[in-house]
């Protein structure tokens, strides 16, 4: 009687462990799919892949411009902000090019190096842009990214999805997938050993 209870408890434990392993594998596959349709296309589409050193040549803040934010181009989404323009000397080619914050900045407004998020307080936006401009004047030499193929003549300060970020994005689902597979293998080995022991 006690032996039957132990066998039943063991089978329940194996079933739960197997369900846990299969659930971890399924979750990791969903995470792979989500990363594949969101992050990977932006990473592969970016042409600014080579890092170099940029030196600030001049910074300029023009009068307020009107530009839609990333959500759309409706009138309700358009807001004015000071246009910061930063020109740098590209060490790799010696050219004078315009600097943008990220790839997304160029798509939002190619006239400005920085496009702020929509904020209700215009003074806060102006203060942030003034701070960024003063930081460029203070730290005139910094790493940046350019297009080695020459498709884009401008440079960006930072990539939205760098190689390190893509690595960490795939790290967690990979660990979950490995852990799930390991649990399934251990359960199968335990079942095999149990059957072998019973047969003997």
From TrEMBL:
It is found in: Membrane. The chain crosses the membrane at residues 20-43, 166-187. GO terms for biological process: detection of calcium ion. It holds the Pfam family CaKB. One of its GO terms (cellular component) is voltage-gated potassium channel complex. One of its GO terms (molecular function) is calcium-activated potassium channel activity. It is a multi-pass membrane protein. Belongs to the KCNMB (TC 8.A.14.1) family. KCNMB1 subfamily. This is KCMB2 protein. It comes from Malurus elegans.
């Amino acid at each position: 009687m006690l032996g039957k209870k132990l066998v039943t408890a063991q089978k329940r434990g194996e079933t739960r462990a197997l369900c846990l392993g299969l659930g971890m594998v399924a979750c990791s596959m969903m995470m792979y799919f989500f990363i594949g349709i969101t992050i990977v296309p932006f990473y592969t589409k970016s042409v600014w892949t080579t890092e170099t050193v940029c030196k600030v040549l001049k910074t300029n803040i023009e009068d307020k411009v009107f530009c839609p934010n990333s959500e759309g181009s409706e009138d309700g989404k358009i807001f004015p902000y000071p246009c910061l323009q930063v020109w740098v000397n590209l060490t790799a080619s010696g050219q004078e090019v315009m600097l943008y914050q990220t790839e997304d900045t160029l798509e939002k407004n190619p006239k400005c190096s920085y496009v702020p998020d929509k904020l209700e307080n215009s003074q806060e936006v102006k203060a942030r842009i003034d701070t960024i401009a003063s930081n460029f004047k203070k730290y005139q030499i910094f790493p940046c990214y350019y297009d080695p193929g020459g498709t884009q003549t401008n440079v960006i300060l930072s990539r939205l999805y760098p190689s390190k970020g893509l690595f960490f994005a795939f790290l967690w689902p990979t660990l979950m997938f490995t852990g799930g597979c390991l649990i399934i293998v251990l359960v199968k080995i335990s079942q095999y050993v149990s059957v072998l022991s019973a047969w003997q």
